[in-house]
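User: Second chain of the day. Same drill as before.
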Amino acid sequence: MTRFNIILMLVLVFFALALVTSQHRARQAFQALEAEQERGRELEIEYGQLELELTALATSARVDKIARERLKMQLPQTVYKVSDLVGEKAVAAASEQGRKQP
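Assistant: Same format as last time:
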């Protein structure tokens, strides 16, 4: 009977240690999860800030300023639209037809 009690006590101690070990690992895993979630929130905040910065950098006024100052770019002196050119040719053609008819 004493031998049986000793065996039961050893089994009980073994399972108690296993329970404590598994709880400790679960707590460590939970702490790691919370740390990673915090890091994820920080990255989301940083991403939002970077998007705002990108929006500010990509404004047309800023791009125009950089193009003029750093790259020495200029707008062309005359700008023709394709529709303007087609319209001018149509007017010229119509006026020539009007001249040819008596």
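The chain has a mean pLDDT of 85.

User: Great, on to the next one.
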